[in-house]
């Protein structure tokens, strides 16, 4: 519909005078809170890199060490030596997320300016700071940084746990960059999926969701004004509009509940994923990594009717089987109970179960997921 300048001024004035509704806050973008924290100086973003040709500040070195620790902790399947080598490699840069002068996340990348792309090699936020929109805001800062450099493509190899995050950030398996531009420049990772993201130089990504929210609010107010005008011209429409509004409110409430539940589910998923990766990476986890093979213990399944292992738990987590922490704890406890049922107390297996169980309980407590 055509909108006069005067009408638009009235809408903008009413938006400025009124506070953001609770419903708008509930359904705001994932990075809204992170953007607010940055504006208040609670979090900061810095590009850091090592150098062989010029002095590096002590602060920069401390942040590089902090980034190495975050990546090593959050990406346990990556060799620590490999992470350290790339983080401190002068050819790589890292966008560091800083809170209370400590590194809580980052994205390590390598620029290929002549080829028109950057490769993202590591991306992580420390577990106790996840599900706060930091990951989205971190990626948006990286996008703006590359747009300023005139680089408009990202490439990355994502494992099964990272694919969901990258999809939310606009990555897809449909690579827009010609294959000749990156073939031979990036390393192929076995078991990972190549994903790409094309950047638009007309977008300020750190403000994008805020702009979209304001535009939606303007459109909603314009629609309200138009509806009020129609009601004044056609009073008989009032009853039907009221009935429609009641149905819309009910649907809106249901939508809000679903979004709230989705955020809770995501938070639980990331906490459980972190704990499970820590357990799998523990030195005493080796007997429980995969299902027991009959060739190694021929009578195992005669004694153990409900087997469980860490690989099965990983598959269940990936498929969102763990709708609550109790199911997750029950599966983990079954691993330890089965082990102690089948093996004698003086065996290495029995001792590993005891050690790993204590470690698991401690990690669940650290994550705030332990009720006992």
From TrEMBL:
Localization in the cell: Nucleus
Domain Bromo: 280-350
GO cellular component terms attached to this protein's record: ATAC complex; nucleus
Entry-linked SUPFAM superfamilies: Acyl-CoA N-acyltransferases (Nat), Bromodomain
PROSITE patterns: BROMODOMAIN_2, GNAT
Stretches with biased composition (Low complexity): 243-255
Pfam families listed in its UniProt record: Acetyltransf_1 (PF00583), Bromodomain (PF00439)
Keywords: Activator, Acyltransferase, Bromodomain, Nucleus, Transcription, Transcription regulation, Transferase
An MF annotation (GO) of this entry: histone H3 acetyltransferase activity
Protein family membership: Belongs to the acetyltransferase family. GCN5 subfamily.
PANTHER family per record: GH11602P, HISTONE ACETYLTRANSFERASE
Name listed for the protein in its UniProt record: histone acetyltransferase
Source species: Tetranychus urticae (Two-spotted spider mite)
């Amino acid at each position: 519909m055509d909108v006069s300048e005067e009408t638009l001024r009235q809408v903008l004035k009413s938006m400025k005078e009124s506070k953001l509704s609770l419903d708008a806050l509930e359904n705001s973008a994932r990075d809204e809170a992170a953007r607010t924290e940055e504006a208040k100086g609670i979090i900061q973003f810095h590009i850091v890199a090592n150098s062989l040709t010029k002095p590096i500040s002590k602060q920069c070195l401390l942040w590089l060490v902090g980034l190495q620790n975050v990546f090593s902790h959050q990406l346990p399947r990556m060799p620590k030596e490999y992470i350290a080598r790339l983080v401190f490699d002068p050819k790589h840069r890292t966008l560091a997320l800083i809170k209370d002068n400590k590194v809580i996340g980052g994205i390590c990348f390598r620029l290929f300016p002549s080829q028109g792309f950057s490769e993202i090699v590591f991306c992580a936020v420390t577990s106790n700071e996840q599900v706060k929109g930091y990951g989205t805001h971190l990626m948006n800062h990286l996008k703006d940084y590359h747009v300023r450099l005139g680089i408009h493509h990202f490439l990355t190899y994502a494992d099964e746990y990272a694919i969901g995050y990258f999809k939310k950030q606009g990555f897809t398996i449909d690579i827009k960059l010609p294959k000749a531009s990156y073939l031979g420049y990036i390393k192929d990772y076995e078991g990972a999926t190549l994903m790409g993201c094309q950047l638009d130089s007309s977008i300020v990504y750190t403000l994008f969701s805020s702009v979209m929210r304001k535009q939606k609010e303007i459109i909603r107010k314009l629609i309200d004004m138009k509806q009020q005008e129609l009601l004044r011209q056609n009073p008989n429409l009032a009853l039907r509009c009221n009935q429609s509004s009641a149905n819309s409110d009910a649907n809106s409430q249901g939508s809000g509940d679903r979004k709230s539940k989705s955020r809770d589910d995501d938070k639980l998923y990331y906490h459980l994923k972190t704990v499970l990766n820590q357990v799998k990476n523990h030195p005493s986890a080796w007997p429980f990594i995969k299902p027991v093979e009959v060739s190694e213990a021929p009578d195992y399944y005669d004694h153990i009717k409900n087997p469980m292992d860490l690989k099965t738990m990983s598959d269940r987590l990936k498929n969102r089987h763990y709708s609550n922490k109790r199911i997750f704890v029950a599966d983990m406890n079954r691993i330890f109970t089965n082990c102690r049922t089948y093996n004698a107390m003086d065996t290495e297996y029995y001792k590993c179960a005891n050690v790993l169980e204590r470690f698991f309980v401690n990690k669940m407590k650290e994550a705030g997921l332990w009720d006992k």
